[in-house]
Design goal:
- The protein is an all-beta fold.
- The chain has a single domain, classed as RNA polymerase II/Efflux pump adaptor protein, barrel-sandwich hybrid domain (OB fold (Dihydrolipoamide Acetyltransferase, E2P)), CATH 2.40.50.100.
- It is built from no helices and eight strands.
- The strands form two sheets. Strands 1-8-6-3 form a four-stranded antiparallel β-sheet, with no helix packed on it. Strands 5-4-2-7 form a four-stranded antiparallel β-sheet, with no helix packed on it.
- It is globular.
- The protein starts with a strand and ends with a strand.
C-alpha cells in the first residue's frame, strides 16, 4: 500500500499559504488529477491534485488554515 504525501512542489522558504477550499475528507476516493484542495499565497492560487487514484488516508489541514508552504497537506493510499 503506497503512501503518497501531498505537498507543494518546490515551495519558497518561509512562504505561507492559506487553504481556501477543501474538496475532500478522510476516506474520500479520488482520481489521479483530481483537485484535493485549493491553496493561495500572496503570489498565486493553485490546486493541489491527486497524483494517483486512491483514498484520502490523512488530512493535515482544514479550510482557512494558514500554514508554511512546505507543510504536509494530506496523505493518499492506493486502496
Amino acid at each position: 500500500m503506497p503512501r503518497v504525501e501531498i505537498r507543494i512542489e518546490d515551495p519558497d522558504p518561509g512562504e505561507e499559504v492559506e487553504v481556501v477550499a477543501l474538496n475532500v475528507e478522510v476516506g474520500s476516493k479520488v482520481a489521479s488529477g483530481e483537485a484535493l484542495m485549493e491553496v493561495a499565497s500572496d503570489k498565486a492560487n493553485m490546486d493541489l491534485t491527486a497524483p494517483i487514484d486512491g483514498t484520502v488516508a490523512e488530512l493535515h489541514v482544514a479550510e482557512f488554515d494558514v500554514v508554511k508552504a512546505d507543510h504536509l497537506f494530506a496523505v493518499l493510499t492506493d486502496e
